[in-house]
Write a structure and sequence with these properties.
about 120 residues; mainly alpha; 5 helices
């Protein structure tokens, strides 16, 4: 049995890649000299990396906050379900009243920052 081995060349047989490379080199040569120096490229790359890092931080904090909100909502729903499962109406009402008293947010001594909502407004 004969086996055939094929080797792929780095450059495709068509001149598409070479034409693209020529176009890119022509575009690069047409740029003004200050833009072809290495420091604007480095500065733009550092700016892009800083923006990506900031975006990552915002997304990570949003995910963490959403997870905390989901967990607190699930915990409260389970507690309400347990209170509703009690047989005696007076005990059930006391349990729900206790949950509602725990759920009331404490009065903040200082005002929230501008352009932010309180937890009650956010949960509507």
């Amino acid at each position: 049995m004969r086996t055939h081995s094929h080797t792929l060349s780095r450059q495709p047989s068509s001149g598409v890649w070479s034409a693209l490379r020529r176009d890119a080199e022509g575009w690069w040569q047409e740029l003004p000299e200050p833009l072809r120096r290495p420091w604007p490229m480095a500065l733009s790359m550092l700016t892009i990396l800083a923006l990506l890092a900031g975006f990552h931080q915002v997304v990570r904090d949003s995910v963490r906050q959403g997870e905390l909100l989901r967990m607190s909502t699930a915990t409260r729903a389970e507690a309400v379900w347990r209170c509703q499962a009690l047989r005696q109406p007076k005990v059930r009402d006391n349990c729900l009243a206790q949950l509602d008293s725990q759920h009331q947010p404490a009065v903040a001594s200082n005002r929230p920052p501008p352009n932010t909502a309180t937890m009650q407004v956010a949960q509507r």
